[in-house]
Amino acid sequence: MKQYHDLCTYILENGEQRKDRTGVGTIGVFGYQMRFNLQQGFPLLTTKHTSFKLVASELLWFLKGDTNVQTLVRQNNNIWNEWAFENWVASDEYQGPDMTNFGIRATQDADFKVHYDKEMTTFIERLKVDDSFAAKYGELGPVYGRQWRAWEGKDGQIIDQIQNVISSLKQSPHSRRHIVTAWNPAEVDEMALPPCHSFMQFYVQGDKLSCQLYQRSADVFLGVPFNIASYALLVHLIAQETNLEVGEFVHTFGDAHLYLNHLEQVNELLSREPKKLPEIQLSSKSIFDMELEDIQLIGYESHPRIHAEIAV
């Protein structure tokens, strides 16, 4: 994963410090590209532990067209909880302590974080067991899964972009229109979080499938290792579905940034030596029937996890 280390180093050496919506502040650059040859191993970061289970369960959630966090929390995947929690604490039904600007306050106030963690735990446990509560407060709006699998077009026409791109790859592999977009201007304001990884294009050369992602905004320390692994896994899944081998994953960035409260952790990561990349093993199921147990990560060895607070 030298490519990822090079990105972090490039930002540290060339980045501009900027204010951001979280109040934490970032150092970042605009415009950067990494390339990963998927024939050389699965690009899961090894210089800090990265949970493949979280990556795979989130991707399957997208592919099923799901937009409710209940599915994820039942698999102990909590990476989308903050946005659903925001729905809950802003409601008239919420009777707990004041959670205004909880994302910023939880990173700056240790006493507040105790209350925040307690309220979040209560929220997650209720989401798991209370379907009506989850339907009301676990819904994130028309985020990735909706756009990928059920984009609403003219006159209510539903467009399944993933199915369409698989069909086009099979029928016309050399087409220049193998595109899936999550950035829907008509619905972006209804989304809990506007799509960061917003546009992808597939490309066939010989018997190999490649994918290029355009990511408009990238939290390089926490988010990007997940994004790399997620789209690499998507290439594996679609390659199997279309009877192709995997080629490259090309990762193109708009605003690529490191939060200022992550810089110590970034330097710790850069001091570590990357380990051998693992491999992916898939069951023979269709991409649309895949479950978590159908995707196996083989030979993953990493350095210890590095803790860092998410900026919400």
TrEMBL record:
Active site, UniProt feature: C196 (nucleophile), C196
Domain called Thymidylate synthase/dCMP hydroxymethylase: residue spans: 2-312
Residue positions binding dUMP: R21, R176, R177, R216, S217, A218, D219, N227, H257, L258, Y259
Keyword Cytoplasm annotated: yes
Location (main, coarse): cytoplasm
Catalyzed reactions: dUMP + (6R)-5,10-methylene-5,6,7,8-tetrahydrofolate = 7,8-dihydrofolate + dTMP
PROSITE patterns linked to this entry: THYMIDYLATE_SYNTHASE
GO function terms (MF aspect): thymidylate synthase activity
Gene Ontology CC entries for this record: cytosol
InterPro entries per the UniProt record, alphabetical: Thymidate_synth/dCMP_Mease, Thymidate_synth/dCMP_Mease_dom, Thymidate_synth/dCMP_Mease_sf, Thymidylate_synthase, Thymidylate_synthase_AS
Highest taxon listed in the record's lineage: Bacteria
Keywords attached to this entry: Cytoplasm, Methyltransferase, Nucleotide biosynthesis, Transferase
A GO biological-process term: dTMP biosynthetic process
EC code: 2.1.1.45
Assembly behavior: Homodimer.
Protein name: Thymidylate synthase
Species lineage: Bacteria, Bacillati, Bacillota, Bacilli, Bacillales
Gene name in the database record: thyA
